[in-house]
Amino acid sequence: MNKNLIHTLLASSLAFSSLAASAAVTVTIGTVNNGDMIRMQELSDKFEKANPDIKLEWVVLEENVLRQRLTTDIATKGGQFDVMTIGMYEAPIWGDRGWLTPMEDLPASYDVNDIFPAVRNGLSAKGTLYGLPFYSESSMTYYRTDLFREAGLKMPERPTWEQMREFAKTLHKPENDQYGICLRGKAGWGENMALMTTMANSFGARWFNESWHPEFNGSEWHDAVSFYVDLVGNYGPPGASSNGFNENLALFNSGKCAMWVDATVAGSFVTDKSQSKVADNVSFALAPKQVTDKGAGWLWSWALAIPVSSDAKDAAKKFVTWATSKDYSDLVAKEYGIANVPPGSRASTYANQDYMSAAPFAAKTLESMDNANPADSTLKPSPYVGVQFAAIPEFQSIATQVGKFVSGALAGQMSVDQALKNSQSVTEREMKRARYY
Helix or strand or coil: residue 346? Predict the structure, then answer.
C-alpha cells in the first residue's frame, strides 16, 4: 500500500471520528449537590457508554444557587439547561405555564404506575406529569440511641417539640463537641423555611388565612419562631444560621448532633458506615408535633424535568427516563448496596423485602410520607396546597425573604418580633401586588 493511500485513509478515518464526535448531542444537567445526585453523576458514564451519541454536561450547585439559576433560565427561556432538577413546588406551576415538556409516551418498562400516586400528583398539573421523580421524601427525627440510653431517655414514636427541647437540654455538651440538636438555619425557601414551616404548622400556624392574608402577626407564628430561636440558639451548634441540609448531615455523621430533624432521604447516609461515625447508633422517629401533628412532616420530591427551551429534548428524555428507572435503582444497588437506592418514589422499592431488611429507615420513611397531606396541612383551613410551601407562584420570592429574617433572628441580628414584623410587611406587599386582595 503506497504512502499516499495510507495518508488518505488515515485522514478519512480522522474526519469520520471527528464527524461522529461532533454529531453527539450534548445534554446539560442542572442539579443539586446532594449525595444521591452526586452518585447519579458518578454512574452516568454507564449511560454514556450505552448511548455514545449523547454527551452529558453537569452543573452541580448548592440548593439555593441552583434554584435561582434554574428559575431565571426557565422564566427567560434561556435554554442553558436540558434537564433541570426541580420539585413538587416548581413542576405544577412551571408545567401549567407551558415551560416544561410533558412526560408522556414513556416506555412500558418504565412502569409509571409504580410511582406513588402522591408523588405523581405532586409533579403534575391538570393530570399531566411534568417531572420524573429521582427520589422523594418526608421529614423525620434522627437521634443517637447510645446517648439516649446513657442519659436514661426514651424517644417517643412522635415526640413533641417541647420534648425535643428537654432532650436537647439534657444532651447538649458543647465542651465535648456534642450539641443537643441540629436544625436548618441557612436562609432559603427550601432550606430553613422548609423546616420552619413544618414547625409552624405543628404550632397551629399557617402562611395565609382563607382570604390570603399573611399571619405572621399572629400568636402561632410568634410561638413557633420564638421556640425555634431558643431551641437552636441554646442547644444547637455554633454558626447554626449558616447550616443547611448538607452541613447538618456532616455534623450528624461526625457525631456532633444528638438529634436532627430533616429529610428522610438522609437515612441511607447516616446508617452508612463508610461515611457515618454513628451508623450503629442511629434510630428514627416521626417529625415532632406540638399542638397538632398536621403538617408536621413535609412532602417533597426531587425530580428531573425538561424545559421547553431545550434543543436536545429527545436525548434529555432518554437520560431522565434512565436516571429515574427501576434499572437505575438496580444499578445503585449493585454498585453501592441496596440500602442506597433512591428512596420514596416507587411502591416496588418498599415491596422488596431485601430493601426493607437492609434499610432500617425505610419503614419510617414510608410512614412519614403516608402521613403528609398537602391538601390538609394546617390546623385552621388554608387556601393553599402544600405542606412546607404554599403552591402559588409568589411563594418562592416571599419565602426567600422571610427565610432571611428568620435566619437573622437565629443569628441574633434582629429580634423575633422584628423578624415577624418584617415578614408580615414583605408578604402583605407581595400579595397585594399580585392582587390576591
Answer: strand
Task: In whole angstroms, give the CA distance from residue 30 to residue 396.
Answer: 19
CATH number of this structure's domain 139-298+380-433: 3.40.190.10
Provide the CA 40 distance to its chain's centre, in angstroms: 15
C-alpha cell, 36: 444521591
Q: What is the DSSP letter of 87?
A: -
Q: Which three cell numbers stand for residue 237?
A: 451548634
Per-residue pLDDT, averaged over 154-182, amounts to 98
Instruction: Report residue 15's pLDDT band, with 50, 70 and 90 as the boundaries.
Output: very low
Residues in the chain: 437
Which triple of cell numbers denotes residue 90?
Answer: 416548581
Cβ distance 117 to 61 under 8 Å?
no
Cβ contact 265:36 at 8 Å: yes
Model confidence pLDDT, tens digit, residues 290-307? 999 999 999 999 999 999
Question: Are 228 and 183 spatial neighbours (Cβ–Cβ below 8 Å)?
Answer: yes
pLDDT band at residue 364 under the 50/70/90 scheme: very high
Contact between residue 358 and residue 352 where contact means Cβ atoms under 8 Å apart: no
Span 97-114, pLDDT tens digits: 999 999 999 999 999 999
Under a CB-based contact definition with an 8 Å cutoff, are residues 337 and 354 in contact? no
Q: Which CATH number fits domain 3-137+299-358: 1.10.1020.10, 3.90.1580.10, 3.40.190.10, 3.40.50.300?
A: 3.40.190.10
- In 3-state terms, what secondary structure has residue 391? coil
Separation of alpha carbons 331 and 256, rounded Å: 33
Report how far residue 13's alpha carbon sits from residue 72's, in angstroms, rounded to the nearest whole number: 43
Q: Each residue of 317-342: b (16+ CB within 10 Å) or e? A: bbbbbbbbbeebbebbbeebebbbbb
Strands (E) across 270-350 are located at 282-286, 300-305
Q: Residue 21 pLDDT more than 80?
A: no
pLDDT in tens, 393-408: 999 999 999 999 999 9
